[in-house]
Amino acid sequence: MTLGELAAVPTPDPGVRLSRERLWDEGTRPRAPHDPGGRGYTPRQQAAGRRLIEVHDLIRAELAQLRGLLADLESGVLGAAAARDRLHTLVLRRAGTPTGGYCQAFCRLVVLHHHREDTDVFPGLRRFDPRLGAVVDRLEAEHTALHGLVDRIDRVLVEQPLDPARLRAAVDLLTDALLSHLSYEEHELVEPLARLWG
């Protein structure tokens, strides 16, 4: 068994905000207690943190695709038929309108990912290290806030006619909050996950 430093590197928060609105105050986020330096981790221990980052990277990539698609539709560079064709190259596919269908599919991915964390991962972390309670509480609260934003996007999508400016504003806020949340979660949980599943 070979021990090594954590290979899973949390993704930094880009720090750029597209919206003036905020879902939460990032300065009030609690920090997880981390194991003192000098501890090595097996590849098996490091797997959970790597998987977390890989799933988050998929969400980030899909968010970038969604934003690109919205920009192309708004600018007229891409028509509806071409947008539908481009949707078929993405991981998440859904029939229907290019913007609405893809937004709904992306939002479902985010909600399902958070549901799994809330029901499977977080309870295990709480039992393993009660000192993680404040971080887990905060992550769960952020999940709830993000789900509220997903609901907001859904409401905008069912309005007729669709208001592109309102949709853009909601997607901008989702982008800001989601990228910040994913980075925070990785920074706080990669090392504790290695200890938990060690």
TrEMBL record:
Q: Where are the transmembrane segments?
A: none
- Which residues fall in a compositionally biased region of kind Basic and acidic residues? 18-37
* Matches recorded under InterPro entries: Hemerythrin-like
Domain Hemerythrin-like, first and last residues per copy: 52-190
Q: Which domain of life is it from?
A: Bacteria
What Gene3D superfamilies does the database record attribute to this sequence?
nmb1532 protein domain like
Segments carrying the region annotation (Disordered) are: 1-46
Protein name as annotated = Hemerythrin-like domain-containing protein
Organism lineage reads as:
Bacteria, Bacillati, Actinomycetota, Actinomycetes, Pseudonocardiales
